[in-house]
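Subject line: Sequence and fold of a protein, written as structure tokens
Area: Proteins and the way their chains fold up in space.
Start of record: The labelled sequence and token lines come straight after this line.
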Amino acid sequence: MLAASFAPGRTALPAATRFTREVMTAWAAASMSAEAESLTGALVSEVGDVPFEIVWVHQGDALQIEIRERETGDVTVSPPASPVTVWGVSFSGELRTRWARIGLPGGGGGGGRVVDDWTGQKASQGPGWLGFLADASDLLAGTLDPDMVPALIAQIVVPRLATWCAVYTVPSDAGPLSLAYLWHADESKIDQLRERLAEAAVPSVDSLTPVPIQLADWQSLAFPLVARGRSLGMMCLGRSGRFPDDVAQLAEDLGRRAALAMDNARLYAQQADANRALQRSLLPPGTPAETPGLDYSVVYEPAGETNEVGGDFYDLFATGESSWRFAIGDVCGTGPQAAAVTGLARHTLRLLAREGYDVAAVVSRLNQAILEEGERARFLTLLHGEITRTDDGLDLALISAGHPEALRLRPSGVVEAVVTSQSLLGVFPEAEFVADHVHLAPGDVLLGVTDGVTERRSGERLLDDDGGLSKLLAECAELSARAVAERIRRAVQDFAMAPSADDLAILVLRAD
């Protein structure tokens, strides 16, 4: 059984599909991957806006998927939109489980997987073992999830090289060995084996060669998992008879490849964690809790499909009892260089606003600050403005520095561009900026977005072709700021099936 939990939202389906693909890889059932992914998509698409868990169960001659979620009262009774052997819905307290089963090719209910057993073959008898190592390397390289690598190792080894496999890992803080994954050819014996291993003496990770393990009824060997000079854990194999020398050599080679895959996954995860922390640090510490006369909403979504920090940013902060500053911008590129410019821009905007500079002076000084970064400089598009509450709405002083045009929506449904595009930042030292003045009467809405919205692509078409964004906004008359932002976000998501490769930021200001 393999399980994973998922948060609701637009990333749920891609993440669930990747998990299913990894499960099929771990179970050496790549031929079933397309069918399993289709079934996953059909079931996940019916999940409500709640967290859910996916559980895959290997039943010998069939694979069963279970989607577990909190009961919401909306019970699906129709079969999945994908061919299955049997399906159903069950309940346990507040938990609802929708499940479906697909048969394995040639499955006859024998209770075991049809696999190749290499334990009775010698490496010198043919090139088959080279193909096995090549396939194993591809499987191990196919995941960058450090929690999945131990499961892959065990599933690859059993029963090809051994009857059971236990993978022990060393935490990143160099703590003691811990059992990360245990697999037995007979799943009913896993718990008993776990108890025996808990009493056995697992060799130290300092060992660089295979070491026998004293375990009753089993011939057991522990293979060190070492990569780039670091000890990452142990791979322990067991079988009823003696390990042939060729099989031991094959397992030792596999251990080296597994250790390298585990180290790559850990390094990737560490970099991803660092990038997420950096991304969070680039977001504003908070937005004003009370904004009398101003209704606002912000949507920010990093692309999330790569291990890179994005360049989109936003900010909204108070400068007085009835005045605020806002910004939405996009730094060229991604990664640390873009992040440096993002941090520079957001902090400069806040600092200069508190020093009393008007929006034109702030943008001009930010342009100079970016240019002073020299070779590290990245050009930046920015929509920056000051909001002042008046008796009849909101007065805005705006500057659009090469940014997608800001749009104003009237309660009547009329949409119009309200700012003049000026020079983007970080390119021309002689650039001068002049603020445009816009008034938002009660019910008027101002929309600012980054190019992750306007340049969302479906085939050869962009979302903003033929005034697409204006048409979307026109449908939002008399909606709250939050409802407007959410409708634009959903429209961007629905415009194309593929996940977006660009960050997305949406800022909506509405005069109450």
Observations:
- The longest strand covers residues 380-390.
